[in-house]
Design a protein that fits this description.
By secondary structure, the protein is mostly helical. The chain contains 9 helices and no strands. The longest helix is centred in the last third of the chain and has 35 residues.
Protein backbone atom coordinates (compact mmCIF):
# COMPACT_ATOMS: atom_id res chain seq x y z
CA UNK A 1 0.00 0.00 0.00
CA UNK A 2 2.80 2.45 0.92
CA UNK A 3 5.82 0.72 -0.59
CA UNK A 4 4.74 1.10 -4.23
CA UNK A 5 5.15 4.36 -6.11
CA UNK A 6 3.39 6.22 -8.93
CA UNK A 7 2.59 4.12 -12.02
CA UNK A 8 3.69 0.89 -10.33
CA UNK A 9 0.59 1.05 -8.14
CA UNK A 10 -2.53 -0.98 -8.93
CA UNK A 11 -6.07 0.26 -8.44
CA UNK A 12 -6.30 -2.10 -5.46
CA UNK A 13 -3.25 -0.43 -3.89
CA UNK A 14 -4.85 2.99 -4.36
CA UNK A 15 -8.18 1.87 -2.93
CA UNK A 16 -6.48 0.54 0.22
CA UNK A 17 -4.43 3.72 0.58
CA UNK A 18 -7.36 5.99 -0.21
CA UNK A 19 -9.88 4.27 2.04
CA UNK A 20 -7.65 4.03 5.12
CA UNK A 21 -6.22 7.54 4.88
CA UNK A 22 -9.65 9.04 4.08
CA UNK A 23 -11.04 7.22 7.13
CA UNK A 24 -8.39 8.80 9.36
CA UNK A 25 -8.87 12.23 7.74
CA UNK A 26 -12.61 12.03 8.35
CA UNK A 27 -11.96 11.16 11.98
CA UNK A 28 -9.51 14.02 12.50
CA UNK A 29 -11.72 16.58 10.78
CA UNK A 30 -14.85 15.73 12.77
CA UNK A 31 -13.08 15.56 16.13
CA UNK A 32 -11.44 18.94 15.45
CA UNK A 33 -14.86 20.41 14.68
CA UNK A 34 -16.25 18.90 17.90
CA UNK A 35 -13.39 20.17 20.07
CA UNK A 36 -12.15 23.34 18.35
CA UNK A 37 -15.06 24.28 16.02
CA UNK A 38 -12.52 24.35 13.17
CA UNK A 39 -12.04 22.27 10.03
CA UNK A 40 -8.57 20.78 9.72
CA UNK A 41 -8.62 18.36 6.79
CA UNK A 42 -8.67 21.12 4.16
CA UNK A 43 -7.82 24.82 3.83
CA UNK A 44 -10.26 25.96 1.14
CA UNK A 45 -12.36 27.92 3.61
CA UNK A 46 -9.32 29.57 5.12
CA UNK A 47 -8.41 31.07 1.75
CA UNK A 48 -11.77 32.87 1.98
CA UNK A 49 -11.35 33.83 5.65
CA UNK A 50 -7.86 35.30 5.10
CA UNK A 51 -8.85 38.18 2.75
CA UNK A 52 -11.96 38.78 4.86
CA UNK A 53 -9.87 39.32 7.99
CA UNK A 54 -7.41 41.52 6.08
CA UNK A 55 -10.27 43.64 4.71
CA UNK A 56 -11.59 44.14 8.25
CA UNK A 57 -8.15 45.07 9.55
CA UNK A 58 -8.07 42.10 11.93
CA UNK A 59 -4.34 41.60 11.54
CA UNK A 60 -3.89 39.09 14.35
CA UNK A 61 -6.67 36.83 13.04
CA UNK A 62 -5.32 37.19 9.50
CA UNK A 63 -1.84 36.17 10.68
CA UNK A 64 -3.24 33.09 12.42
CA UNK A 65 -5.17 31.99 9.32
CA UNK A 66 -2.12 32.59 7.14
CA UNK A 67 -0.05 30.49 9.57
CA UNK A 68 -2.61 27.66 9.33
CA UNK A 69 -2.40 27.73 5.53
CA UNK A 70 1.39 27.69 5.69
CA UNK A 71 1.36 24.78 8.16
CA UNK A 72 -0.77 22.70 5.79
CA UNK A 73 1.59 23.67 2.97
CA UNK A 74 4.63 22.82 5.12
CA UNK A 75 3.23 19.39 5.97
CA UNK A 76 2.71 18.59 2.31
CA UNK A 77 6.14 19.99 1.43
CA UNK A 78 7.89 17.94 4.11
CA UNK A 79 6.06 14.80 3.05
CA UNK A 80 7.20 15.18 -0.54
CA UNK A 81 10.77 16.04 0.44
CA UNK A 82 10.94 12.83 2.46
CA UNK A 83 9.60 10.82 -0.47
CA UNK A 84 11.90 12.41 -3.05
CA UNK A 85 15.13 12.47 -1.05
CA UNK A 86 14.55 9.68 1.44
CA UNK A 87 14.21 6.81 -1.02
CA UNK A 88 17.94 6.49 -1.69
CA UNK A 89 18.85 6.82 1.99
CA UNK A 90 16.12 4.90 3.80
CA UNK A 91 14.36 2.81 1.15
CA UNK A 92 11.02 3.41 -0.51
CA UNK A 93 8.77 1.91 2.18
CA UNK A 94 10.44 3.75 5.08
CA UNK A 95 10.45 7.10 3.25
CA UNK A 96 6.73 6.64 2.55
CA UNK A 97 5.94 5.53 6.10
CA UNK A 98 7.69 8.41 7.89
CA UNK A 99 5.03 11.04 6.92
CA UNK A 100 2.35 8.76 8.39
CA UNK A 101 4.35 8.36 11.60
CA UNK A 102 4.82 12.13 11.83
CA UNK A 103 1.09 12.60 11.27
CA UNK A 104 0.38 10.06 14.01
CA UNK A 105 2.69 11.94 16.40
CA UNK A 106 0.92 15.24 15.66
CA UNK A 107 -2.52 13.76 16.35
CA UNK A 108 -1.19 11.99 19.46
CA UNK A 109 0.34 15.26 20.70
CA UNK A 110 -3.00 17.06 20.35
CA UNK A 111 -4.80 14.29 22.25
CA UNK A 112 -2.24 14.27 25.08
CA UNK A 113 -2.17 18.05 25.30
CA UNK A 114 -5.96 18.17 25.61
CA UNK A 115 -5.90 15.54 28.35
CA UNK A 116 -3.09 16.95 30.48
CA UNK A 117 -2.30 20.58 29.66
CA UNK A 118 -5.18 22.30 27.87
CA UNK A 119 -6.37 25.50 29.55
CA UNK A 120 -9.07 26.27 26.96
CA UNK A 121 -7.37 29.48 25.85
CA UNK A 122 -7.68 30.92 22.36
CA UNK A 123 -3.91 30.73 21.75
CA UNK A 124 -3.81 27.04 22.70
CA UNK A 125 -6.74 26.30 20.40
CA UNK A 126 -5.06 28.10 17.50
CA UNK A 127 -1.83 26.19 18.11
CA UNK A 128 -3.56 22.79 18.27
CA UNK A 129 -5.60 23.49 15.15
CA UNK A 130 -2.34 24.37 13.42
CA UNK A 131 -0.83 21.04 14.50
CA UNK A 132 -3.75 19.13 12.98
CA UNK A 133 -3.54 21.13 9.75
CA UNK A 134 0.15 20.28 9.52
CA UNK A 135 -0.75 16.60 10.04
CA UNK A 136 -3.36 16.72 7.28
CA UNK A 137 -0.86 18.41 4.97
CA UNK A 138 1.53 15.53 5.61
CA UNK A 139 -1.16 13.01 4.70
CA UNK A 140 -2.41 14.76 1.59
CA UNK A 141 1.11 15.31 0.30
CA UNK A 142 1.95 11.64 0.83
CA UNK A 143 -1.12 10.15 -0.83
CA UNK A 144 -1.00 12.53 -3.80
CA UNK A 145 2.73 12.04 -4.33
CA UNK A 146 2.99 8.26 -4.23
CA UNK A 147 -0.19 7.76 -6.28
CA UNK A 148 0.77 10.24 -9.01
CA UNK A 149 -2.00 12.61 -7.79
CA UNK A 150 -4.67 9.92 -8.18
CA UNK A 151 -5.41 9.68 -4.44
CA UNK A 152 -6.22 12.79 -2.38
CA UNK A 153 -8.05 12.06 0.82
CA UNK A 154 -8.22 15.09 3.12
CA UNK A 155 -10.82 17.05 1.12
CA UNK A 156 -13.75 15.99 -1.03
CA UNK A 157 -14.59 19.01 -3.21
CA UNK A 158 -12.69 17.86 -6.29
CA UNK A 159 -13.60 14.24 -5.60
CA UNK A 160 -17.32 15.02 -5.56
CA UNK A 161 -16.93 16.90 -8.86
CA UNK A 162 -15.04 13.96 -10.39
CA UNK A 163 -17.75 11.56 -9.23
CA UNK A 164 -20.42 13.72 -10.83
CA UNK A 165 -18.44 13.75 -14.09
CA UNK A 166 -18.09 9.95 -14.03
CA UNK A 167 -21.79 9.42 -13.32
CA UNK A 168 -22.65 11.62 -16.28
CA UNK A 169 -20.18 9.67 -18.45
CA UNK A 170 -21.79 6.39 -17.40
CA UNK A 171 -25.01 7.46 -19.11
CA UNK A 172 -23.21 6.31 -22.28
CA UNK A 173 -23.19 2.51 -22.58
CA UNK A 174 -19.60 2.24 -23.86
CA UNK A 175 -18.23 4.10 -20.83
CA UNK A 176 -19.84 1.63 -18.44
CA UNK A 177 -17.56 -1.05 -19.94
CA UNK A 178 -14.43 1.11 -19.73
CA UNK A 179 -12.24 -0.50 -17.04
CA UNK A 180 -10.23 2.65 -16.36
CA UNK A 181 -13.39 4.69 -15.72
CA UNK A 182 -14.98 1.96 -13.60
CA UNK A 183 -11.79 1.57 -11.52
CA UNK A 184 -11.65 5.32 -10.96
CA UNK A 185 -15.32 5.33 -9.90
CA UNK A 186 -14.68 2.56 -7.37
CA UNK A 187 -11.64 4.42 -6.02
CA UNK A 188 -13.47 7.71 -5.58
CA UNK A 189 -16.49 6.01 -4.05
CA UNK A 190 -14.29 4.12 -1.56
CA UNK A 191 -12.57 7.38 -0.52
CA UNK A 192 -15.90 9.17 -0.11
CA UNK A 193 -17.44 6.31 1.87
CA UNK A 194 -14.38 5.88 4.10
CA UNK A 195 -14.18 9.61 4.85
CA UNK A 196 -17.85 9.65 5.87
CA UNK A 197 -17.44 6.47 7.94
CA UNK A 198 -14.39 7.89 9.71
CA UNK A 199 -16.24 11.10 10.48
CA UNK A 200 -19.27 9.19 11.74
CA UNK A 201 -17.14 6.99 14.00
CA UNK A 202 -15.33 10.05 15.30
CA UNK A 203 -18.57 11.83 16.09
CA UNK A 204 -19.98 8.81 17.93
CA UNK A 205 -16.73 8.25 19.84
CA UNK A 206 -16.61 11.87 20.91
CA UNK A 207 -20.11 11.68 22.39
CA UNK A 208 -19.06 8.82 24.68
CA UNK A 209 -15.27 9.05 25.02
CA UNK A 210 -14.42 12.70 24.23
CA UNK A 211 -10.68 13.26 23.67
CA UNK A 212 -9.97 9.53 23.56
CA UNK A 213 -11.14 9.77 19.94
CA UNK A 214 -7.73 11.21 19.02
CA UNK A 215 -6.11 7.96 20.16
CA UNK A 216 -8.51 5.94 18.00
CA UNK A 217 -7.40 8.03 15.01
CA UNK A 218 -3.78 7.30 15.98
CA UNK A 219 -4.53 3.58 15.96
CA UNK A 220 -5.87 3.84 12.39
CA UNK A 221 -2.70 5.69 11.34
CA UNK A 222 -0.58 3.01 13.01
CA UNK A 223 -2.34 0.35 10.90
CA UNK A 224 -1.56 2.37 7.76
CA UNK A 225 2.11 2.71 8.70
CA UNK A 226 2.60 -0.95 9.65
CA UNK A 227 0.45 -2.62 6.98
CA UNK A 228 3.27 -2.92 4.46
CA UNK A 229 5.75 -3.83 7.20
CA UNK A 230 3.59 -6.86 7.95
CA UNK A 231 3.28 -7.70 4.24
CA UNK A 232 7.05 -7.45 3.72
CA UNK A 233 7.68 -9.61 6.78
CA UNK A 234 5.30 -12.24 5.40
CA UNK A 235 7.04 -12.20 2.01
CA UNK A 236 10.45 -12.63 3.65
CA UNK A 237 9.11 -15.45 5.80
CA UNK A 238 7.69 -17.29 2.77
CA UNK A 239 10.92 -16.74 0.82
CA UNK A 240 12.99 -18.15 3.69
CA UNK A 241 10.65 -21.14 4.01
CA UNK A 242 10.94 -21.94 0.28
CA UNK A 243 14.72 -21.54 0.42
CA UNK A 244 14.96 -24.02 3.30
CA UNK A 245 12.68 -26.41 1.41
CA UNK A 246 14.92 -26.26 -1.69
CA UNK A 247 18.08 -26.86 0.37
CA UNK A 248 16.58 -29.85 2.13
Amino acid sequence: MLRKYSNHRTNSDNIKLGALTAFSAGMVNVISVCVFFAFTSNITGYYAVLPQEIAKGNWYQAAVVLLWILLFFSGSLLSNLLIIHGKSRMGQYVSHAIPVILELLCVLFVGLYLDFFYGDSLQETEFLVGALLFAMGLQNGLTASISNSVVKTTHLTGLTTDLAILVSMFTIQANRSNKALVDKFHLLLSILGAYFAGGLLSGICYVYYHNFTFYVACFVLLIIALYDFYKLARVKQLFAHRKRALVS
